[in-house]
Amino acid sequence: MTSTDPQHRDREPAIEWAHPGLHLRFDYGDDHPVRLVHWSTGPDSESLAAPSAIVDVSTAGEHRDRPNQSLLLWGAGQRLRYTGHETHGDELRIRQHDPEGGLAVTSVFRAAGPGVQIRHTVRNGALGDLMLLSVSSGLVSVPEGAHDLLWGESEWLAEGRWQQRPIAELLPNVNPEFHGRRNRGNFAVTSHGSFSSGEFLPTGVLAISDGPSIAWQVETSAGWHWEATQNEGAVTVGVYGPTDLYHQFAERLAPGDEFTTVPAGICVADGGRDAVFAALTDYRRAIRELRPVDAGLPVVYNDFMNTLMAGPSTEKELPLIEAAARAGAEYFCIDAGWFGHGNWWTDAGNWREAPGLFTGGLISVIDAIRANGMRPGLWLEPEAVGVDSPVAQQLPEEAFFQRFGRRVSGNGHLQLDFRHPAARAHLDEAVDRLVDEFGIEFFKLDYNVNSGVGTDVTAAGPGAGLLGHTRAYRDWLSDAQARHPEILFESCSSGGMRMDYNLLSVAHLQSTSDQQDFRRYAPIAAAAPASVLPEQAGNWAYPATSMSVEETAFAMTAGVMGRLYLSGFLGGLDSERFALVREAVALHKDWRHRIAEAHPVWPLGLPGWDDDVIALQLDAGSESLLALWSRGAAAEITLPGLRGRAVKQVYPVALPEWTIRTAEGLPVVEVPAGPAARIFEVE
Known about the structure:
The protein is an alpha+beta fold and 683 residues long. It is 22% helix and 33% strand. Helix 7 packs parallel to helix 8 and helix 12 packs parallel to helix 13. The N terminus is likely disordered.
């Protein structure tokens, strides 16, 4: 709903916009842009927002009002004035115009679950060209207070290392009144290159326990930036896609041309960290483009991690297939190495069966997968072309990323540019052929090289080229799913190096890491639901013959507490260890549809990389699944969030139960020395 208040002498015109769990108000006037002045979960709930403009725009040649590191307060954005608004279903659209420069902006707020997805479209209404350097995707101000700021650090094999600090420590009070100046404090998190989550996660939180908290995410696989900056007694959260300052982005708009920002997803919840992550979880579910085939949530076995490592053959695959089927897998994916002429890395792009590699041909392995009651899958790296692949010479130069007239090359890989029709046609042909020839029903789509800032082919700046490519790649993936609605598509990127909701809104699941040390996987799996939906969090479970029974249960626990992604030489396990695998798969199957409705809770806080005890609870309302991993000395763990609730061990049933007692109404678990793990049902 929306309404416009009549003008009063003591109040400016306002726009009210409400949906279940959302209540926003904006004001506007002749002397300032449209501002967001109220954001709460309902008409009677406390507002989180301090007044702030809804969009900021930076163009070449413009002045800026602040001499600090933030991206706030550029001239073009400050000159915007209200020209109209309307609602269309779940969307509120607000129109503004810069009467001096001719720039027009349409801001779209789309209700999605308890959150809002925000985009802005900038149109050049001037007579000459306009060069955009940055446009905010989302701006929300919060009064200065006792909030904690949470951000996620990431790297290959160490994804999702969350940090939490009081905002007052990150943005210190420098006594601006004494100096007669404004505060300049700014805390920023920025991506670099084409790994959108290779260094930091595109998600942040301002949490407070006794009031409304806010979470946000940048929904792009290209460059992004978010910041929390001091601004007139408030902290302004700015969410951005690629910018000139950080990503060499520029977009030239001829008269009449438009540019639309990457989406920003923003959620507000009454409560602290876990409450706002729950809201973000529901928002992510609301923006997914689900297909009927996604509803099954099948268990996938993949032959890569701690197993064949891109060295498949018929003789190696057949025992894996038989064991995976006995363990309860429903899909079997042949990972890298099935194509080319012997080098899976430099042969990438030649998506044709390697001659002589498979006795009886690849079809014999596919047939064995089906004969064992599973559905076949293959690994692809759609955007990669190896330097030894014939595709490197067959496709035109403009179909590849380039800088200064030369192809971008990373460790033997060239980067395809999906803006070019030849690149998309090459992958369309490969996918369609593999489906027709082998009946493939699952594709693992990988991405293993950070290609850098982007491409300057037909782009004013390489950051704009990267943005255009990632948008075209998402469109290609959506089109492939429309042609093949029965096929599942996984998004992988050296594990979790491109874990963003530009892709995750259309992909079936996300591999959360390439980490092969099961001890190190525990904090990755436990933190994953802060970045990706638990039902999309492809946590590898890869038992090995070298593991003890306790270590086997430890390794399998990660898979159960997300989206179980099975691997390992299962056929070599003795009966006791194999029984632990089957039991974990069965438990996951029993819970997978409840996991798809659950919210993550961290009873001991978001896990530290070296924590001795790690906890993750997937709360499905009246019942929950709780995992505890022990990696250090024996300890007693109190669970204050589970006061009065029953905690019962459900995995593994064959190993000793951990002692649980009650102290002052709180469950206390006696955790033995690790590595060891248990899963509990909470009622």
